[in-house]
Amino acid sequence: MARCTAPVYGHRSASAEANCPACGGRSGRGRYGGYGSYSSPSYTPYIRSSSSPSSGGSRSSARPRWSSAGSSAAYTPTEVRALTPVRNKVETLAAQQPDLRDVFLCHAWDDRQGSAMELHDLLESSGIRVWFSEKDVGLGVPLLRAIDKGLANSKVGIVLVTPALLRRLPLEGIADKELSALLALERLVPVVHGTTYEALREVSPLLASRSGLSTGEDSLEDVATKLAELVTFDPSSATEA
Fold it and tell me: Is the dihedral of CA 67, 69, 71, 77 positive or negative?
């Protein structure tokens, strides 16, 4: 049986759906076989503006209130709904503790010089302050204590979910301890990269239950743009609706 290539949020464009071995032949049956909830009006409390119904069958999109009209980031209504509670926390923390780091980046040890470093660099190039073990844990510093301080002094936790992380979590190492602490917070955003939410669900159902972002049909650069918009907030100049 052909399997759908989309992540948990579905296809972002008509061409992506057409190229999918499972969904390519559905054009005469309605979008996603009738799963109309992805464009449901119930999401409007989280949306500033959305695409027109006359967009020719392309997937519905949404603009969260924290994203500028000129932003290149294209959000789905599901992403807006999932990220809005995190954004609310960011705004509260930014007002109360302005010196906090923007992001704590949780990743597998194997990714420290690869995808984790790439995501770190993309975020920092956008002006985001990232706690990253490769630069924030000095020689001779107890690792667990440094991680504990990093978590306590960051607004949002990002978990980079890769095949390497899925291999590491069952071993209950450092990444597992970071994840356990992050799961206790309402400031956690999973970023699924090079794998799927289905694979994550087999290893960590609790983490998989937290909707986040995926590079299944977005580039890592696009994901970094969304994360940067999510955590950027200046209480002194806030004009958001």
Answer: positive
The pairing of beta strand 49-50 with beta strand 101-106: unpaired
Range of the domain at 196: 42-235
166 contacts: CB under 8 Å, gap ≥ 6: 195, 199, 200, 203
Residue 132 maps to a domain: yes
Backbone angles phi, psi at 156, to 5 degrees: -135, 140
What is 43-98 written as a DSSP string? GGGG-SEE--TTSTTPPP-EE-TTS-TT----B-HHHHHHHHHHHHHHHHHHHH-T
The tens digit of pLDDT for each residue in 48-91 reads 444 433 333 345 788 999 999 899 999 999 999 999 999 999 99
Q: Is residue 11 part of a domain?
A: no
What's 100's domain CATH number? Answer: 3.40.50.10140
How far CA 182 is from CA of 41, 65, 153, in Å, comes to 31, 25, 12
Q: Tell which residue, 167, 166, 227, 155, has the closest CA to residue 191.
A: 227
- Cα–Cα dist 104/182, whole Å: 9
The burial of 4, by beta-carbon neighbours within 10 Å (0-12 exposed, 13-18 middle, 19 or more buried), is given as middle
Task: Please report how the helices 174-183 and 143-152 are oriented relative to each other, as an axis angle in degrees rounded to 10.
Answer: 20
Signed CA dihedral, 129, 131, 132, 134: sign only: positive
Q: In total, how many domains does the chain have?
A: 1
Beta bridge partners of 12: none
- Quote the pTM value: 0.72
